[in-house]
Amino acid sequence: MKLILAPMATLSHEAFRRCVARFGGCDEYFTEMINAPSLLAGGAWEKFYLMSGPEPDKIVWQLTGNKAESMAEAAALLSGREGIGIDLNMGCSAPQIANTGAGISWMTKPIAETAQMVRGVKSAIANATKGGAVEKRLSVKLRLGADDFTDEGFFSFCDMLVSEGVQLLTLHARTKKEKYRRPPRYAYVEQVALRYADKIPVYLNGAVCDRTSFDAALQIAPHASGVMIARAAAQKPWIFAALRACHSELVSESHSPIDCEQVALQFIDDVEECQPPEFYKTRLQRFFAYYCDNFSFGHWFKTQMLNAATPEQSRERVREYFAKCPEDCIRNF
Predict the structure, then answer these.
(1) For residue range 59-104, what is the model confidence (pLDDT) as tens digits?
(2) Contact (CB, 8 A) for 29 and 5
(3) 228: buried, middle or exposed (CB in 10 Å: 19+, 13-18, 0-12)?
(4) Which residues of the chain fall short of a pLDDT of 50?
(5) Are strands 59-64 and 28-30 parallel, antiparallel or unpaired?
(6) For site-directed labelling of 87, which of 119, 135, 219, 320 has its Cα 20 to 30 A away?
(7) First to last CA, the chain
């Protein structure tokens, strides 16, 4: 059973991966979405999206875009970098992504158009790695589709992906408009996993936040090959270590208590090292919006952190909180 860090915009960058890795890391780290046209244009920020530390051999590069040609060209470029593979984003339903024809829009376009895009990406990866290099794995992260999806349409779409050479599917088993308050339909993960049991692995994504939800998800989808975790990893960067330590199917480990103040301060340091100054505020805000939920006065702490203007002000507010609430500083899994 693999444990995977999900792709999350403004969060699945190297600074956050370092935070997770200090607790033993996970099996695969999906990057935040890399916009294919921006990557090809060599934009000023793209080098920060291409940072692959601290475990380059576990990186999966996630691509987004609305044109088949740019997706293939970007995939070829990424094929020469470290990592496991390239993932095509067909699940993001955020309006700023979906309304451009990217993300989940690939599930609602004519299936022949999406098939052509996947075929082009697969060919670009193969051509880029001729001459002895290991070919990158091609995967797709998807949802169930639009709110009026049908089983026939969904499974036909999955069949197309597999027939075009996709080697892994990650299913966030919600529709385009279903929000996080509705439980994912894990039964679809199980159906997909069984459908392709002798062909490709299938990862489960959505609403796993602790041991109880992990076990509950796998009770419904026991044939999933891995579990991808998103927001819960931002709240608890040690979640992968905690699951390994307590789950019978995973490796048992022992860990020292967590210094939550030090985790926060180290993350701020890493953001300064791994991100441009223009990104400091948004990257810190995104992390602390989740991380502060661990603590007794989390709402107040979160407000303080979201309003911090600079990394140094963020450090001051972290130290101030734990000075006032020392009982929140040290915790166990």
Answers:
(1) 999 999 999 999 999 999 999 999 999 999 999 999 999 999 999 9
(2) yes
(3) buried
(4) 252
(5) parallel
(6) 219
(7) 20
Continuous segment of H or E residues that includes residue 331? strand 330-331
pLDDT tens per residue across span 205-224 = 999 999 999 999 999 999 99
Q: Which amino acid is at 205?
A: N
Q: Is 326 exposed, middle or buried (0-12, 13-18, 19+ CB in 10 A)?
A: exposed
CB half-sphere exposure, 297, CA atoms < 13 A? 15
Extract the tokens encoding 6. 């999900």
Q: How many CB atoms lie within 10 A of CB 201?
A: 18
Q: How far apart are CA 302 and CA 63, in angstroms?
A: 31
Whether residue 13 contacts residue 274, with contact meaning beta carbons closer than 8 Å, is answered with: yes
Is 137 within 8 Å of 167 (Cβ atoms)? yes
Query: In Å, how far are 35, 44, 46, 235, 282 from 38, measured between CA atoms?
Result: 5, 9, 7, 30, 19
Task: Answer whether 0.90 is exceeded by the pTM.
Answer: yes
Cβ atoms of residues 192 and 229 within 8 Å: no
What DSSP character marks residue 139?
E
Tokens of 111: 């299936």
φ, ψ of residue 88 in degrees (nearest 5): -95, 125
Q: For residue 71, give both structure tokens.
A: 């997706």
